[in-house]
Amino acid sequence: MSQDETVTVAEGEARASVVEGAPWWRQAAVYQIYPRSFADANGDGLGDLPGVTSRADYLERLGIDAVWLSPFYPSELADGGYDVADYRDVDPRLGTLADFDAMLDALHSRGIRVVVDIVPNHSSDRHVWFQEALAAGRGSAARERYIFRDGTGTDGAEPPSDWQSVFGGPAWERVADGQWYLHSFAVEQPDLNWSNPEVRADFVRTLRFWSDRGVDGFRIDVAHMLTKDLSEPLPSAAELELIPRDGDHPLLDRDDVHEVYAEWRAVFDSYDPPRTAVAEAWVDKARVPLYARPESLGQAFNFDLLEADFDAAQFRAVVQENLELAAASGSSSTWVLSNHDVVRHASRYGLPHPARTADGHPAQKHGSEWLLSGGTSPVLDREAGERRARAATLFVLALPGSSYLYQGEELGLHEVAEIPDAERQDPTFFRSRGAEIGRDGCRVPLPWEPSAETAFGFGSGGSHLPQPEWFGRSAVSVEEGDPDSTLSLYRRALELRHALQTAESLEWVETGRADVLRFRRPNGWEVVTNFGGSPFPLDRADAVVASVPLVEGALPADATVWFGPVALRVGAGRRPDRRSGLVPRLDGLVRDGLAS
Ligand code: GLC
Q1: Is the CB of 117 under 6 A from ligand 1?
Q2: What residue ranges of the chain are covered by domains with CATH 3.20.20.80?
Q3: What per-residue confidence (pLDDT) applies to 569?
Q4: What distance, in Å, lies between the first and last C-alpha atoms of the chain?
């Protein structure tokens, strides 16, 4: 699409034309908490649910609409909690169900909704079902809950197929009696058999369990992988690659997975208000709306910005395509710059271009290259990375749809490169024998205070992943006192976002520069991002927030500014409890944000 085209994304039938009355999730700012690394209340070095509760005021002050909690269930932590041993309980190291209820109350009473993670493709090998399957032996009903097969070759000593797991290494593991089980991820994560009605019924029970406790929604882990066609003969890995992913692939994105989600939808809709869901589905773009439809999960992650460079043309293409896809599904779009699986965006954007070129799953891959080199080749430009990250976040927070933020990005945190191999935890590191550095660098416990003595305020018992010395400079208490900090910027932007939020559409405005994007929301809220080298002169003087101070009426390189009709929306936001006093505070915020 050329820069001179002006494109308006029309509002679809199902989309909210007014923000009031629209379902909360359509344009929410959702903050992802990785519970083991957020705050540690009991001093065992592992974050916990009382830790989250203890930081409820922080979350309220941040201005987010919802929290998404990565798994907090009992787990041996073979994959950071995505190996669940009991879907309806809390890991004792993280608290109790009573602690969960207390956390839910603390967040709800502050107007913050709560989304929990459901991991249905696989359980932990410590799950009682898998233990039963091992004990019951071949041909048993217990084995039918998982995917067990006899091997090939002499005495079945070879795996049923040559498939590789996502984390590297074979996807089949042999058990004592000689059978093999399928694990698409780590050995400790046996795939469940979604052809088995008992498996389906049990997940419905889990969804009801958490819905009855009051959770507002669910994030569905690898939502495109549940159902499988394992008819014999199994195709080889090479053959699998050649099979089109059009709904009938044996392992991925099968049409029949939507039978599962239709059943879940009925469960979600039996609650008032209906529970929500968002799919993590790595599928062809054209098939994303299948997951995002109201009759399926209702919303799906769009990871395109994770894979894009900090580049005007790439950002514009991603935004345009995803708004169209969201409109086609009747859902709203989602925007993600960082999460627990990828190198933090402040670091991605600080790498020289070749290291950031997209292909496949590049954030991980290119991040790994840099991390393996210890940050010396290519050299990470921390300052540029942070500046671009602030600009990208401010751009994204103004887009129609929901923004998913990952804990620590509001502090401008970089990826932690300096984790000794012996202290790494991610199975991708071990299963790839170090070729993939893994995801530990974005999962290091948050710094709350500048002193390393209390694990930077994380807790009195140290930190389960080592925190670097430079974390102190980005501690919450340090950034809180600095009006120019990234934390102050997030707070300003999130608060303004409530005041400015408008119908789900945008109009691109011609800028005359290929490296500058500008868009306008229906109420006149306007956003300009300069992805390039030279300052961009601005023709409006009513800026409400900027990622760096404006200089003589121009927007510097790697920066974003918002212009907003603040008066228009003041007092009309979705969270009236937070609205009082907004006008005077906004005045202050605008002054602080733009003072140069
Ligand atoms: C998802 C999660 C990731 C996990 C994997 C297996 O991609 O985001 O962290 O390792 O699923 O559950």
Answers
A1: no
A2: 25-120+197-380+400-480
A3: 38
A4: 35
pLDDT of residue 380: 82
Rounded to 10 deg, the angle between the 257-269 and 197-213 helix axes is 30
**Confidence (pLDDT) at 114:** 98
Nearest atom, ligand 1, residue 83 CA: 12
Tokens read off for 371: 């991390």
Question: In this predicted model, what pLDDT tens digit does every residue of 364-381 receive, in sequence order?
Answer: 334 444 444 444 556 788
What is the pLDDT, as a whole number, of residue 571? 37
Overall CATH class of domain 490-591: mainly beta
Predicted pLDDT at 566? 59
Integer CA distances (angstroms), 108 to 93, 114, 217, 256, 271, in order: 24, 8, 13, 36, 17
Contacts of 266 (CB under 8 A, 6+ apart): none
Cα distance between residue 570 and residue 43, in whole Å: 42
At residue 584, the pLDDT reads: 30
* pLDDT on residue 19: 64
- Tell me, what's the pLDDT at 437? 82
List every span in the chain annotated with CATH 3.90.400.10. 128-182
> H or E element: which one contains 332?
none
pLDDT the model gives residue 433 = 85
CATH of domain 25-120+197-380+400-480: 3.20.20.80
Of residues 502, 461, 121, 58, the one with CA closest to residue 282: 121
Tell me the CA–centroid distance for residue 222 and ligand 1, in Å: 7
Task: State in Å: Cα 188 to ligand 1 middle.
Answer: 13
Residue segments in the chain with a per-residue pLDDT below the cut of 70? 1-19, 353-378, 566-596
Ligand 1 pocket mutation, candidates 69, 77, 79, criterion most atoms within 8 A of CB: 79
Q: Is 222 in the pocket of ligand 1 (CB under 6 A)?
A: yes
Helical (H) or strand (E) element with 543: strand 543-546
pLDDT at 574: 36
- Which residues are bridge partners to 554 per DSSP? 537, 551
Residues 6+ apart with CB under 8 A from 97: 89, 90, 213
Cβ–Cβ < 8 Å for 247, 229 = no
DSSP 186-243: -TT-PBB-TTSHHHHHHHHHHHHHHHHHT--EEEETTTTSS----PSSPPPHHHHHHS
How far is the C-alpha of 404 from the C-alpha of 407, rounded, in Å? Answer: 10
The pLDDT of residue 324:
95
Q: Is any ligand 1 atom within 6 A of the Cβ of residue 79?
A: yes
Catalytic residue among 280, 386, 415, 558: 280
- The length of the chain in residues reads 596
Is-catalytic flag, 221? yes
Query: CATH classification of 128-182 is 3.90.400.10, yes or no?
Result: yes
Domain with CATH 2.60.40.1180 in the chain: 490-591
